[in-house]
Amino acid sequence: MDYMYIFIKLGTGFIGLWLITKLLGKKEISQLTPFDFVSSLMLSELVGASIYDREVHFPELVFALVLWAVLSLGFEKVLQLFPWLNPKLSGRPDVLVRDGRVDPEAMRRNKLDWHQVTMLLREQSIFSLREVAFAVFEPNGNLSVLKKSPAESVVREDLDLPDKKVELPVLLIDKGCLDEDQLKSIGRDRSWLEEELRKQGAKRLEDIYYGEWTESGGLYIQHGS
């Protein structure tokens, strides 16, 4: 294939992608909805495949870019004119934690496990579920968190107290499953855990949806539905 022809098609594809991006509005990667993400993949594949395909000529590439821009803009306009379609097509926020209590059904609905959720919490400098009042899973995959009110907290400096040791919570129970390695890492065994669960009114390990441990706070559990 003629190198000049590749250059022309590549330049056209680059300019076309840039124009479409400008027309559709600026969005960071973290703000992309599932539709935006799939649309970007398909558009890049369309341009990439056409550059080296001898059967796809320059006018066809331009036509494909224009058609894609029209379809994408049309889709955006439809969502603006009919807002009730937006949750169905782009997804809606889902509350994972409400008033400090986890919603197991919301976790299942969004196909999330605790390793994913705790990672999203750590990205916001939250290392324990005890700190969370509300957590909303956004359509773009982010987690919006409202912490519990710190109003009852006393500033340690005001009371001239020594600094409290900082601890990283250990996830022991995830959806009724015990992490034996984590249990060993804190120097405890299954008998100790079962006794702690009984103290908190839990009869079976399988009934616990989430359980974490800190030396200062002890065992913190939440029951499943």
From TrEMBL:
Cross-referenced InterPro entries: DUF421 (IPR007353), UPF0702_alpha/beta_dom_sf (IPR023090), YetF_N (IPR048454)
Major localisation: membrane
Membrane topology recorded in Swiss-Prot or TrEMBL: Multi-pass membrane protein
Cited Gene3D superfamilies: bsu07140 like domains (3.30.240.20)
Superkingdom per UniProt: Bacteria
Record domain YetF C-terminal: where: 86-214
Name of the protein described by the UniProt record: DUF421 domain-containing protein
Organism of provenance: Paenibacillus mucilaginosus 3016
GO cellular component labels: plasma membrane
Subcellular location: Cell membrane
Residue span(s) of domain YetF-like N-terminal transmembrane: 3-75
Keywords tagged on the record: Cell membrane, Membrane, Transmembrane, Transmembrane helix
Family statement drawn from the similarity comment of this UniProt entry: Belongs to the UPF0702 family.
